[in-house]
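Standup notes
- DV: blocked on the single-chain target, sequence here:
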Amino acid sequence: MKRYFIADLHFGHASITEYCTRPTFRKCDFGDDGDWKSPEVAAEAAKRMDNFLIKNCNGRVKTDDTVIHVGDFINSGLVKGVQGLRNKPNFYLDQLNGTWVLLTGNHDRNNHVKPVANFMVADIGPYKAFIAHYPIENEKIFNLELIRYVISCTDFQITAHVHQAWKYKFYQHKHGNYLMYNVGVDVQRYLPIPDDKIIVDVSKIMKKVI
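- DV (later): unblocked, structure below
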């Protein structure tokens, strides 16, 4: 049994392939005006991405493993005027290996996703991690009391939301720097990340700043 972390899958979201230049993106799917050639082309692009992500996940995750998904499991509905896929969460969960635990993301609304929590705290090797979709530096999302708790009682954050903007970043506060580690697929080779890989990465990053 192993535990993995992943985020920002955006199942069913055709345009995320363009926004993040995902491997399944095809420039020929767009017209000269920059929009999808048709709703059918957009739907096929979403299906192509979904299949790619499911194959990647199942190639690493086994039946008895656990996967913590840190927000934005699905993005359904209208995307740039094109109807997105409207598959429900179980459509994907039934195809994915392991037991999936879903945390809330900003796109996990009105699409039947039922997250277990907005955030959580977990032990990862020698570290205690705060796990939430938004980076803790977002003071509009997190109240100051929670931010103070996270900084003083945990070692780093497992986060997402920023896609390919950064793999890790330090939240600078008056007491020092707090590490935010992005498990979003766009910076993690479209694969779930196991505890032991996170421990290695975080240890290396922290050594750089000592």
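- Follow-up: The chain is about 25% helix and 25% strand.
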